[in-house]
């Protein structure tokens, strides 16, 4: 079982965020653009997933779903605090290994998810679900009532994840992705 800590992004995460960005996107944001958005944009909320070795890590297993109560379930829920100690968390690294991040802008009462990215070596472990759960919770606290995002039409895994969180296709953007001209599916949820 792997352990992860979900916490707010901070300036020291710049290199790790950019490493994940480059691994996940054909046209990545620059390191400076990414960290500025994550830590200086007053409309933005960004969370990172830190691999085992930090107190407060939460467990994720493939197949866990938001709100699950099984041992090892995704537990980035109200009341979880990034500093609480979880059984089984071990301190093994002097510098935390970031394995994913997610970002969102809150404009008026809408949250626009900008990115959800997980290092390819750490996918299929529930990390994106934990990040998304924490991100939506934080955005609701900032007044967001509806959420939207764009996703590549061919990204079935991401679409399935978003559908688990109540997102539904509401339209498309032709040729949205510059790197290959693929269409984006526009998804919305009010939950």
Outline the structure in words.
With 191 residues, the protein is an alpha+beta fold. It has helices at 14-24, 31-40, 127-141, 156-164, and strands at 2-8, 44-51, 58-60, 98-107, 110-118, 146-152, 168-173, 184-189. It has an eight-stranded mixed beta sheet with strand order 3-1-2-4-5-6-8-7, with helices on both faces. Strand 5, helix 3 and strand 6 (146-152) form a beta-alpha-beta unit. Residues 54-94 have low confidence and may be disordered.
Quick recap of the structure?
The chain has helices at 14-24, 31-40, 127-141, 156-164, and strands spanning 2-8, 44-51, 58-60, 98-107, 110-118, 146-152, 168-173, 184-189. It has 191 residues and is an alpha+beta fold. A hairpin with a 2-residue loop joins strand 4 and strand 5.
List its traits.
191 residues, alpha+beta, Aminopeptidase, eight-stranded mixed β-sheet, 4 helices
**CATH architecture descriptor text:** 3-Layer(aba) Sandwich
Give start-end ranges of low-pLDDT stretches: 54-94
What is the CATH homology-level superfamily?
Gcn5-related N-acetyltransferase (GNAT)
**Number of distinct beta strands:** 8
Spell out the helices and strands N to C.
EHHEEEEHEHEE
Enumerate the strands of the largest sheet in spatial order, edge to edge or round the barrel.
3-1-2-4-5-6-8-7
State which percent range the strand residues make up: 25-35%
Helix content: 10-25%
Could you tell me the radius of gyration in angstroms?
Answer: 16 Å
CATH topology: Aminopeptidase
């Amino acid at each position: 079982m792997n352990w992860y800590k979900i916490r707010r992004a901070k300036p020291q995460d710049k290199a790790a965020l950019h490493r994940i960005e480059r691994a996940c996107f054909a046209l990545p944001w620059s390191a400076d653009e990414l960290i500025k958005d994550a830590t200086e944009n007053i409309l933005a909320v960004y969370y990172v997933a830190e691999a085992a070795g930090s107190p407060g890590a939460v467990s994720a297993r493939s197949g866990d779903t938001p709100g699950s109560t099984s041992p090892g379930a995704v537990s980035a829920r109200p009341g979880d605090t990034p500093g609480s100690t979880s059984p089984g968390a071990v301190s093994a690294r002097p510098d935390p290994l970031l394995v994913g991040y997610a970002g969102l802008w809150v404009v008026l009462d809408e949250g626009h998810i900008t990115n959800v990215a997980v290092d390819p070596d750490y996918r299929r472990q529930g990390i994106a679900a934990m990040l998304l759960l924490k991100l939506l919770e934080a955005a609701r606290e900032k007044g967001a009532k509806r959420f939207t995002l764009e996703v590549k039409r061919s990204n079935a895994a991401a679409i399935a994840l978003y559908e688990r969180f109540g997102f539904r296709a509401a339209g498309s953007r032709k040729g949205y992705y510059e790197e290959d001209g693929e269409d984006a599916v526009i998804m919305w949820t009010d939950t």
